TrEMBL record:
Protein kinase domain: residues covered: 512-663
Entry membrane topology: Single-pass type I membrane protein
Keywords: ATP-binding, Glycoprotein, Kinase, Membrane, Nucleotide-binding, Serine/threonine-protein kinase, Signal, Transferase, Transmembrane, Transmembrane helix
Protein name: Protein kinase domain-containing protein
An annotated GO cellular component: membrane
Recorded superkingdom: Eukaryota
Regions that span the bilayer: 443-466
GO molecular function: ATP binding; protein serine/threonine kinase activity
Position of the signal peptide: 1-41
Localization per record: Membrane
Main location: membrane
Binding residue positions for ATP: K541
Gene3D superfamilies, alphabetized: Galactose-binding lectin, Phosphorylase Kinase, domain 1, Transferase(Phosphotransferase) domain 1
Length: 663
C-alpha cells in the first residue's frame, strides 16, 4: 500500500476564556454521558452468527427413480414418483443414464422432453433461487448438438432457444457441466412452475433442479432501495416483478467457497483469478472478527468472503485495479460489490478512498469502506446497475469492465483500493423494472437569517471543550491525521480542485434552470447539479455579479476550502471562473442545511441523539479548523445555516467566504 506522506505537526490548541469553560461544564458533562450511550448503540460488537435456514429447500434428481446423495452429502429426490412431477411423467418424457461412472449426482441421470413439460413446486411466497443442472452429452442416441429449448417459470422466460452444449463449449476454462442460477419471486398462493419447451425439431433435457428460498430483500429490495444507474442520471428499482440470472459470484482475492460453506442458501463463490486484468493486485488476508450489522445481516455473504481481498499493492498509481466479465449485449446488469476493511493500516475514515468505474464510467467517487461501514471487520455492500449496449449492434457478447483507482482528490492517507466480493446478475428483459428520474427536492434559502441557534451553539462549544480535553491526552500516541498535504512528488493539482468550464456548469444544471435551485441568498442561487455523466451530485453556488459578496469572498472560499479536508468540513470539488461567472462546486449534502431541520419547517423533528451527534460533528469540524492547519482558521460565520448534513446526518461546516487566517 502506498502511504501518502504528510507533515507531522503538533496542533496548537485554541485559547479559551476560563469563564466560558466554567459556564459550559454542565453541558459538556451531559454530552459526555449521552455520547457514551450513542457510541455503544452504534456498533454491535458481538453480533451472533445466524446463518439463514431456507423455508423451501428442494433437490430434484431428474431421470432418477430412487433418492440419491451428492458429493456435498445433500440428498436428492428422484423425480419419477415425486410430488413435483406430473403423474404421467413416464408417458410424457423419457429418462436416460450416463454411462460414465465418474459422473456425480445429479448429473448421472437426465430427463428428456420432446414436448412441453412442467414441474410444479408448491412453495411459500417470496424470492427463490432456481438452480438448473445440465450435463450436455449424447443421451440414448440423441445428438446433444440438436438440443435447443426455452425455459419459463411463471411469468418469466428464463432461457430462450438455449443450448447447454454450446454454452459449455464456449466456456473458458473448459467444463463438462453447468449450473444456471435464477432468482424469481413467487407471489402469495402461487405455485412455482418450471416449464421446458423444446425448440422446433429439437428436444430439451435437464439433470437436476434445485429450489431454495432466500430472505426477502436480499437481492430484490424494492422501492426503498434505489440503485444508481451508472452513467445515467437515474435510479433503478428491482422489485417483485424482476427476475435475475446470476452470472458471477466471486470471493475476490480468495479461494472457492463451497455451497456448504455459504450462509444457508448454497451459493457457490468462485475465485476471481480468471477475471482479473493483467494479473495485477495484491491479495492480503487476515482473520479478523467479522461483525455483521443490520444493513449487512449475517446471511449477506459468509465471513470468509470478507477476510480475503484484492488491493493494489505498491504500484497503485500506475494502473487501475481491473476485472473483465463477458456478458450479453443489450441487458441491464446488477453489480453487488462486497467490502470489508481487514488490513491493520486502515482503521479510520479517509485512509483508503477510491473511485469505482463500471464499463469505464464513474460509478462512485470517494468510495471509503470505513466511512460506509463504521470500522474494521464490518462488512458493507454497494449495488450498481448498468445497461450494456453495443453502439455498432454487431457483438452479441462483450466485456463488462470493473475498475478502481485511488481517489486522491480527497487526500486519503493511502493510495489504494479494495474489493472483497462481487456478484453480477443479468436482469430479465420482461421484468417490470422501473426507472425514475432523480427528483429535485426543493428547500428554502441556504443562507438564511442568523436568528436562533443559541442553544445549539452552547452545546457545540460545550463539546468543543470536552473534545479539547480528550485530544490533549490522545496526542501523545496519535499523530494528527486530518491535515494531509500530498507529497511534492505527486503532481495532482487538478485532482485537488477542478476547474470547470461554464459549459459544464450549464449542462450540470440544465442551463441554470430554476427547477434546479435548492437555495438562494444575497450572493445568488445554489443549484443541485450532476457532473461526470450524472455519477456525482453536487451543489453549485453561482455568485450573482451584482451581489455584495464579491471576488474577494469567492477567492477566499476557494483558497480556504481547497486546503481543507475533513469529515466535518464540506468538500470543495472545484470552481468555474469563465465569462465573469464565479461559481463554486461542492459535494452535495442530501439533508441540506441544519436550520431547516430546526425551525419553521415541516420536516420531521430531529431526535435528540441525532442533534447531539450533529453538535459533536460541528465541533470536530471547528476544532480541525482551529488546530490542524499551519495557521488557525477562524470561520467567522458559524450558524445553523452554515452547517450542512449529509445522507448519514453527518454535520459539515460550510461557507468560508468570511473566514480569516489566525496567527
Ligand atoms: C425419497 O425421499 C422422500 C422424502 O425426501 C420420500 O418421501 C420418498 O419416499 C423417498 N423415495 C424413495 C424411493 O425412497
Ligand atoms: C401411460 O401410457 C400407458 C400406455 O399408453 C397407459 O397404460 C398408462 O396408463 C399411462 N400412464 C399414465 C400415468 O398416464
Ligand atoms: C429409466 O428409469 C427406469 C426406472 O424408472 C429404469 O428402469 C430405466 O433403466 C431408466 N432408463 C434409462 C435409459 O436409464
Ligand atoms: C453424439 O451423437 C452424434 C449423432 O449420433 C454423433 O455424430 C456424435 O459423435 C456423438 N457425440 C459424442 C460425443 O459421442
Ligand atoms: C402451474 O401449473 C399448473 C399445472 O400445470 C397450473 O394449473 C397452474 O395454473 C400453473 N401456475 C402458474 C402460476 O403458471
Ligand atoms: C435456435 O438457435 C439455433 C442455433 O443458433 C438456430 O439455428 C435456430 O434457428 C434457433 N431457433 C429458434 C427457434 O430461434
Ligand atoms: C414482494 O411481495 C411480497 C408479498 O408476496 C411482499 O411481502 C414484499 O414486500 C414484496 N417485496 C418487494 C421488494 O416489493
Ligand atoms: C468450509 O470451510 C472450512 C473452514 O474455512 C474448510 O475447512 C472446509 O474445507 C470448507 N468446506 C468445503 C466443503 O470447502
Ligand atoms: C511495498 O513496499 C514496502 C516498502 O517499500 C514493502 O515493505 C512491502 O513488502 C511492499 N509490498 C508489496 C506487496 O510489494
Ligand atoms: C474500457 O476501456 C478499455 C481500455 O482501457 C477498452 O479496451 C474497453 O473496450 C472499454 N470498455 C467499454 C465498455 O467502453
Ligand atoms: C482507469 O479507468 C478509467 C475508466 O476507464 C480511465 O478513465 C482511467 O484513465 C484509468 N486510469 C488508469 C491509470 O489506467
Amino acid at each position: 500500500m502506498i502511504k501518502i506522506s504528510h507533515h507531522h505537526q503538533t496542533p496548537s490548541l485554541p485559547k479559551l476564556n476560563p469563564m466560558l469553560i466554567s459556564t459550559l461544564q454542565l453541558s459538556s458533562f451531559l454530552c459526555l454521558l449521552l455520547s457514551t450511550t450513542i457510541t455503544a448503540a452504534a456498533v454491535d460488537d458481538n453480533s451472533p452468527w445466524l446463518p439463514y435456514t431456507p423455508t423451501d429447500y428442494i433437490l430434484l434428481d431428474c431421470g432418477s427413480s430412487s433418492n440419491t446423495t451428492d458429493a456435498s452429502l445433500r440428498s436428492w429426490d428422484g423425480d419419477v414418483r415425486s410430488q413435483f412431477s406430473p403423474s404421467n411423467i413416464e408417458n410424457t418424457s423419457s429418462n436416460a443414464t450416463s454411462s460414465k461412472s465418474v459422473i456425480q449426482v445429479p448429473y448421472k441421470t437426465s430427463r428428456i422432453f420432446h414436448s412441453q413439460f412442467t414441474y410444479s413446486f408448491p412453495v411459500s411466497a417470496g424470492p427463490k433461487f432456481i438452480r438448473l443442472y445440465f450435463y450436455p452429452v449424447n443421451y440414448s442416441e440423441l445428438d446433444i448438438t440438436n438440443s435447443f429449448f426455452s425455459l419459463t417459470s411463471n411469468d418469466y422466460t428464463l432461457l430462450n432457444n438455449f443450448s447447454a452444449f454450446l454454452t459449455v463449449s464456449a466456456m473458458k476454462p473448459a467444463v463438462a457441466s453447468l449450473i444456471k442460477e435464477f432468482i424469481v419471486n413467487v407471489r402469495d398462493n402461487q405455485i412455482l412452475n418450471i416449464t421446458f419447451c423444446p425448440s422446433p425439431n429439437s428436444y430439451a433435457f435437464v439433470n437436476g433442479i434445485e429450489v431454495v428460498s432466500m430472505p426477502e430483500n436480499l437481492y430484490i429490495r424494492g422501492n426503498d432501495h434505489p440503485i444508481p444507474l451508472v452513467s445515467e442520471n437515474q435510479r433503478f428499482y428491482i422489485d417483485n416483478n424482476s427476475a435475475l440470472e446470476t452470472l458471477y459470484r466471486l470471493n475476490v482475492g480468495g479461494n472457492e467457497v463451497s455451497i456448504t460453506n455459504d450462509t444457508g442458501m448454497f451459493r457457490l463463490w468462485s475465485p476471481d483469478d480468471d477475471y482479473t486484468y493483467e494479473d495485477y493486485g495484491f491479495t492480503p488476508h487476515r482473520d479478523v472478527a467479522i461483525r455483521y450489522r443490520q444493513e449487512t445481516p449475517p446471511y449477506t455473504a459468509p465471513k470468509i468472503i470478507y477476510t480475503t481481498t484484492r488491493t493494489m499493492g505498491n504500484d497503485s498509481l500506475r494502473y487501475n485495479l481491473t476485472w473483465r466479465f463477458p456478458v450479453d449485449t443489450g441487458f441491464y446488469y446488477l453489480l453487488r460489490l462486497h467490502f470489508c476493511e481487514i488490513q491493520l493500516e486502515v482503521t479510520l475514515e479517509n485512509q483508503r478512498v477510491f473511485i469505482i468505474y463500471i464499463n469505464n464510467q464513474t460509478a462512485e467517487r470517494r468510495a471509503d469502506v470505513i466511512y460506509w461501514s463504521g470500522g474494521t471487520g464490518i462488512p458493507v455492500f454497494k449495488d450498481y446497475v448498468i445497461m450494456v449496449t453495443d453502439p455498432d449492434g454487431r457483438r452479441s457478447k462483450q466485456d463488462l469492465w470493473l475498475a478502481m483507482y485511488p481517489d486522491l482528490h480527497f487526500r486519503p492517507e493511502y493510495a489504494d483500493a479494495i474489493l472483497n466480493g462481487l456478484e453480477i446478475f443479468k436482469l430479465s428483459e420482461t421484468a417490470g423494472v422501473k426507472k425514475h428520474n432523480n427528483k429535485t427536492s426543493s428547500f428554502p434559502a441556504i443562507i438564511g437569517s442568523v436568528a436562533g441557534g443559541g442553544s445549539i451553539l452552547v452545546l457545540i462549544f460545550g463539546f468543543w471543550i470536552f473534545r479539547r480535553r480528550r485530544r490533549v491526552k490522545d496526542l501523545g500516541s496519535k499523530k494528527p491525521k486530518s491535515w494531509i498535504p500530498l507529497s511534492s512528488g505527486l503532481s495532482l493539482s487538478s485532482d485537488l480542485c477542478r476547474r470547470f468550464s461554464l459549459e459544464e456548469m450549464k449542462s450540470a444544471t440544465c442551463n441554470f434552470d430554476d427547477s434546479f435551485v435548492i437555495g438562494a441568498g444575497g450572493f445568488g442561487n445554489v443549484y443541485k447539479g450532476h457532473i461526470d455523466n450524472g455519477a456525482t451530485t453536487v451543489a453549485i453556488k453561482r455568485l450573482n455579479p451584482s451581489s455584495n459578496q464579491g471576488v474577494h469572498e469567492f477567492q477566499t472560499e476557494i483558497e480556504m476550502l481547497s486546503k481543507l479536508r475533513h469529515l466535518h468540513v464540506v468538500s470543495l470539488i472545484g470552481y468555474c471562473h469563465d465569462n465573469c461567472e464565479m461559481i463554486i462546486v461542492y459535494d452535495y449534502m442530501v439533508h441540506e442545511i441544519l436550520r431547516d431541520h430546526l425551525y419553521k419547517s415541516n420536516k420531521p423533528c430531529l431526535p435528540w441523539k441525532q442533534r447531539l451527534q450533529i453538535c459533536i460533528g460541528a465541533v470536530k469540524g471547528l476544532h480541525y479548523l482551529h488546530t490542524s492547519a499551519n495557521r488557525t482558521i477562524i470561520h467567522h460565520d458559524v450558524k445553523s445555516t452554515n452547517i450542512l448534513l449529509d445522507e448519514k446526518w453527518v454535520a459539515k461546516i460550510s461557507d468560508f467566504g468570511l473566514s480569516k487566517l489566525g496567527p
